[in-house]
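Can't paste images in this forum, so I'm doing it all in text. The chain is below; anyone willing to post the predicted structure tokens underneath?
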Amino acid sequence: ELPQRAKCNNTYQGSGPTYRDKCRPFCPAVLRDHEMEEFLKREYSLSKPYQGVGSSGSSHWELMGDAMVTTEQVRLTPDMQSRQGAVWSRMPCHLKDWEMQVHFKIHGQGKKNLNGDGLAIWYTKERMQKGPVFGNMDNFTGLGVFVDTYPNEEKHIEAQKKRYTPRTQRIFPFVLAMVGNGTISYDHERDGRPTELGGCNAMVRNLKHDTFLFIRYIRRRLTVMIDIDGQHEWRDCLDIPGVRLPQGYYFGASAITGDLSDNHDIISLKLYQLTVLRSPKEEQEESEDEITIPSVDNMDLLRMGDTEEGMSGIAIFFTVLFSMLGCIFLIVIGLVVYSHWNESRRKRFY
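Text version of the structure:
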């Protein structure tokens, strides 16, 4: 059963025939003074009984690598070392506004910090390309939302203490989002920090209840929420305006294991078309500003925040030291200037 309530100030009653009687996530801050309708798009959705997936050319979804279909899930990777798998939509999506609800499960025999590596949900120009980014290619073009279960950068305790304070230190698993334009590489050593749009911690491994990920793209605003506590309530993860994603890209999900492993399962991917009322002026502005390359309007500000977060203790020490020396230097100069001025003033009276 899908989560029925959002962690917002209100809820939205779905108008589509499939979910007419269910409350759906709705944040008035995102869609203030605008009407919205939603419709389940089955051609872009993946759910039980997964008819034809991986074996029929008529299926809308295609398997890659070590992924396999069972009666209960699409298993992207088994709990074995050095595996990677994916499932990709065969049809490009030309929807302007949409939301994806992901029902997933990550579980395995490994204990805390002895599991890996995580899974990803994609909306990209490329499809069916193996690679190191959670089983997909690096330098991708489009959107990736990652459920990262292994702390590559923070695995060394000493390095962690030097770089991060308790406020900025992350708890894994961690959910984050990234937009790529075909030239931006995902930084494994830093767990994607330099290019992330934002994220949140999400303790999703080996849970007995269902876990969900919610991705909404509407009015060039990207919202990600999670429901992992078994309360059927969405929890905010990130909300970024100014995200520009072209139409005609492909949805997919992938996962990878290395020396450490987990079962990475997709139970369902459900895509909803969002129909939003726009004024003629808005329609004209959007048609004139056609998006051809994925980008984020405020990415420079996000990177500045990452730089500040990643400042090491040594860098902070020298910054404070040089700031103090600069202040002392200015005080000395001020005293010298004042002394000369005072001496000149006294001479005028003799």
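Residues 312-350 form one domain. The mean pLDDT is 82.
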